[in-house]
Write a structure and sequence with these properties.
Layout (H helix, E strand, L loop, with lengths): L4 E4 L9 H14 L8 H7 L4 H8 L8 H16 L8 H10 L3 E9 H10 L8 E5 L7 H12 L6 E5 L2 H10 L2 E5 L6 H5 L5 E2 L5 H7 L1
């Protein structure tokens, strides 16, 4: 059954920034004197939300290096480099399919709204979305609240909506909102971790149309 609304995550779902985020983490660790380094597979096993908890799993000691300081340094490296990130495999095709199918689309992101808006515009994607739902700061704390507020204000039946994301946090957000959820294993967390949520997991967004048709 096709949903009436697709709620897209951005980073790692539509924007292919996984390798960059992995590199930024390793550079942040090195720059602060930590010995830990993570390859792509290991990165996908530790990444998650809240971001503070992810930083602790990565090895940071906030008594030595406060989270806010680390986040500022991380973003100073990430933002200019992210201009070179493309879209995840099948992303544009999935967006076009949804648009042609008459499905309303929004992005719900942990990113700061001005950053999200710029990244979407740089990739000529604005025409696909009715709304861009981002955060007021860089600390990625309020995705559930943002999504719930949007559904309440828009009057959309959560049961008719589907969230597409790449992390267990996206599943938690979908559950809190009362929407369906499909997770994509091409992003920031491993397929094994995503499958623990008990919702459909696809390999790339190329598989999304068929997945939604079968639900």
């Amino acid at each position: 059954m096709k949903p009436s609304l697709l709620i897209w995550d951005w980073n790692g779902t539509l924007l292919d920034d996984v390798a960059l985020c992995n590199q930024c983490l390793n550079d942040l660790l090195a720059g602060h004197g930590y010995a830990q380094r993570y390859d792509a597979a290991a990165y996908k096993e530790i990444f998650g939300f809240p971001i503070q908890d992810y930083y602790v799993r990565a090895g940071f000691d906030f008594s030595r290096h406060p989270y806010e300081e680390l986040a500022e340094i991380y973003m100073a490296q990430y933002l200019p480099a992210a201009e070179g990130c493309g879209l995840c495999p099948g992303a544009r095709e999935a967006l076009e399919w949804a648009k042609e199918s008459g499905i309303r689309q929004v992005i719900l992101s942990a990113s700061q709204l001005p950053i999200l808006r710029r990244q979407v515009e740089e990739r000529s994607l604005s025409g696909f979305f009715d709304e861009l739902l981002g955060q007021s700061d860089i600390y990625a704390r309020g995705k559930k609240e943002t999504g719930l507020s949007y559904l309440k204000e828009s009057g959309i039946d959560p049961a008719s909506a589907m969230l597409v994301g790449d992390t267990l946090h996206d599943f938690e957000v979908a559950r809190a909102m009362g929407t369906g959820c499909v997770l994509c294993a091409a992003g920031h967390q491993s397929r094994a971790r995503l499958e623990a949520a008990g919702v459909p997991v696809i390999g790339t967004l190329n598989e999304l149309p068929a997945c939604l048709e079968q639900l």
